[in-house]
Amino acid sequence: MADAAPNLPQLLGEARRWFDDALLAGMRAAGERPVTVAQASVFATLDAGGTTVSELARRIGVTRQTAHQAVHGLIGMGLLEQVPDPASGRTRLIRTTAEGDRVHRRAQAALAVIEDVLAERIGAAGTRELRRLLTLPWGEPPDVRVP
């Protein structure tokens, strides 16, 4: 069987890995403690006021157990904390600590540099167009029925 051209989800996944690899390597080189891709994804999906572990799991597309492990690793590093949810006595919210805020700001600065590198490689216009296309509303996922 001949190698088929990669489909769009594969290409998007490879692009995501490129950013993840660059970010994690840059943060390690800057002296930050290493985190996993799942742990970095937690930071990318946290709400300012805090987010439940179940919601984090949904947003990053992993099981609740995987999200729980990532969160508790970050709590152990002093980057996140659990606080009671004021809207519910049964749930707890995950939010960043002051140290987590510092690391998150540094990661955001690193991502800006990584985007600049991408713009150098594929062109500033290409990078702007990629951002524009990815931020267009896609609507709900289609209900596809394959025979």
TrEMBL record:
HTH marR-type domain sequence ranges: 28-127
SMART domains noted in UniProt: HTH_MARR
Superkingdom as given in the UniProt entry: Bacteria
Record-linked SUPFAM superfamilies: Winged helix' DNA-binding domain
Protein name, entry field: MarR family winged helix-turn-helix transcriptional regulator
Upper lineage: Bacteria, Bacillati, Actinomycetota, Actinomycetes, Streptosporangiales
